[in-house]
Amino acid sequence: MSSSDLSRKAHNKSQHNTAMSSASSSKRIAVAGVGSLGLPIVLALLQAGYSVTILTRSANTKKEGIPAGANVEYAMVDYTSVSSMKRALEGHYGVVSTLTTTSVGAQTPLIEASVQAGVSRFIPSEFGSDTTNPKSKTLPVYGDKVATQAKLAEVAAKNPSWSYTTLMNGPFFDWCLMVGFFGIDLKKHTATLYNGGDRRFSTTTLAGVGKAVVGIFAHPEETKNRTIRVHETVITQKKVIDIAQRLDPAEWTYQAADTEELKSQAFEVLSSGKSEQIMGAMLNFILSAVLGEGYGGEFVSTENETLGVPLLDEAGVEKVVAQFI
């Protein structure tokens, strides 16, 4: 490639980046539920040049981790009131819902408010397992998400100017290592190996999810009214432990578990009505979706390139694990 070609390519790239920055700065995105996931999404949107409105339930609007001087506004809303949220969402291009699993069934008013407010793109609170998989969608823990998917399709069919994108990214790699969701305690050197510990599954860091959300808004036509899958790596429990042992040589203690047995136990809990065991039962359903056979825990195809989410190389995976040793 000649120097003139390189110059022209750099100029075109600069023009594209400037256009993207200008386009994003003219669009305001509302984010509902700014917690462990919502904050990285807000930060990614701000870095991409978007203005952000954080929807809150209370007047205590200060969110830790938001840079001073950031283009952020706060709007106190009633998540059960369409009219309350409609007022807050007027003038917004997009809405990202990161409501927690316990609140995800309450997204219908938010969806309806976004339509009435003239929002163009809605991203529901999915951000996990492939709930379109025939086996995963039958798990009770995903009932509200499956119902929301049907609602989204219904609303989009009736409102051509409104659209949605459902993002699935597997479990959050860094967050799950921090809380021990993968059955691995990196500090105590203990692990529960599910189905032998060799099951491959897709996973993405919280920051990676933020990049994917930005990619959705940057590619509205390619992502319109459909499910998008991304992951930063495909890994196994044993691979995580191998990395941990290289970084912190120690003797590990293991126990074994079968996700099908855990799933059966979870259904028994639901049948018994023991409310104090419900959260544990739901966790077992999620473990089945991530590590069970036939639940789509490893994404066969993804759209990382479209959304601008690079895969983690070996050093990148090791860096994530190292944070929690």
Describe it for me?
The protein is of the alpha/beta class. Helix content is 42%, strand content 16%. The protein contains twelve helices and twelve strands. The protein has a seven-stranded parallel beta sheet, sandwiched between helices. A three-stranded mixed beta sheet has the order 7-8-12. Helix 2 links the parallel strand 1 and strand 2. Helix 2 packs across helix 7, helix 3 crosses helix 4 and helix 9 packs antiparallel against helix 10. The chain starts with a helix and ends with a helix. The relative contact order is 0.12. InterPro entries: NAD(P)-bd_dom_sf (IPR036291), NmrA-like (IPR008030), NmrA/Isoflavone_reductase-like (IPR051609), PCBER-like (IPR045312). GO terms for molecular function: oxidoreductase activity. This is NmrA-like domain-containing protein.
Q: Which labels suit this protein?
A:
single chain, seven-stranded parallel β-sheet, alpha/beta, disordered N terminus, 325 residues, three-stranded mixed β-sheet
Number of helices: 12
Please write the string of helix (H) and strand (E) elements. HEHEEHEHEHEHEEEHEEHEHHHH
* End-to-end separation: 46 Å
Instruction: Report strand %.
Output: 15-25%
The total of beta strands comes to: 12
Biggest beta sheet attributes: 7 strands, parallel
Structural class: alpha/beta
How helical, in percent, are the residues? 40-55%
Determine Rg (CA atoms, Å): 21 Å
Give start-end ranges of low-pLDDT stretches.
Answer: 1-22
Structural shape:
globular
Widest β-sheet, arrangement of strands: 3-2-1-4-5-6-10
Mean pLDDT: 91
